Fold:
Amino acid sequence: MSYTQQRDPDSGGVKITDKVKSQLKNRINKYAEENLAGRYTKLDIRFRDKFCYVDAYTEPEEPRQDWPDDFPETREEYIERMRNTPTHLFRLRYYGDDEWGISFYSYAHNKYETSVFPNGKFFDTPELAMEASAEFHL
Structure:
């Protein structure tokens, strides 16, 4: 059985080096610029040990014109808060050699949950992760 077949997508992984972090940020940003332009205002890509977290910020939809007088914030405050609230796109788990596992954030459970890529694989590329998450979130 090969190493790939033995890996558990819910555990393991290796710490992401500074070189891989830099390359990964560039890859994700490049993919987003080329394929998702106009669907987000900025991306937040951050790292912790073996994980890479990717969030997006978007311009909120205009709220309805008849804003309730008793709402706890003004229409403008609401728009600003929504502008500054990230959408958690995904978390990657690094296994080395450009092998990544993916987890999507469950707002219902308030945590990242392991998933498969659209091609049915547990391990694939950051670009495919961006493609899959954009389908649902952007």
